[in-house]
């Protein structure tokens, strides 16, 4: 199975900060990577697919980049609604796997 | 508006069985791949199983292969997960999710249900 490793596991930031989350794959997945946002007690929300394509309706302050084994999710200016846990997911293989998550906390 | 509504969760003893359902609306269910994803209490997301929209092919995580069966009834717009030989480590919220924009498997998930809690305990 392809292992997905996110860093950091927790991130403390302030409103207006630029935030970057990293996701590394144990083998190349081309750009077959998605990002999700999850708030406590809620289902995940789809943000980005194919590493850098923004899902319709997702604010433009979210962006994704990368290919192969290293990927990033960037929030250009953190808003109060963005405090949540973020997960990456690879869909390169028939065994789908998620990263362990990155919790973005209020500093 | 796309809606996915799970049901069927509850408390079950180790070794027992449970069937989850996911009622879909707001899109052409029969043409979309569908999946189950679970989340143990306080833990991350784990993909469980998927079923293709094109030919009904099924896919499973190693942790549930041979114990869980995914199926769909396109006439009822409903996805199912039959869970047998349940273990304590199967305790989780189970989410139903749709495959993005009709992608064939493997796919990311664009819409998610609210989840149903399965607790395996004696």
How many individual β-strands of chain B? 11
Write down the Rg of chain B: 13 Å
Radius of gyration of chain A: 13 Å
What structural category characterises the helix and strand content of chain A? mainly beta
- Assembly level: heterodimer
Distance between the termini of chain B: 40 Å
Please bin the fraction of helical residues of chain A.
Answer: under 10%
Shape of chain A: globular
Number of helix segments of chain B? 0
Q: Please, what is the average pLDDT of chain B?
A: 96
What global shape of chain B is seen?
A: globular
Regions with little confidence, pLDDT below 50 for 5+ residues of chain B: none
Biggest interface pair, counts: A-B, 25 and 22 residues
H and E string of chain A: EEEEEEEEEEE
Main β sheet profile of chain A: 7 strands, mixed
Strand content range of chain B: over 45%
Mean pLDDT of chain A, to the nearest integer, reads 97
Annotation field: number of helices of chain A: 0
Q: Give the biggest sheet of chain B.
A: 7 strands, mixed
Uncertain runs of chain A: none
Listing every helix as H and every strand as E from the N terminus to the C terminus, the arrangement of chain B reads EEEEEEEEEEE
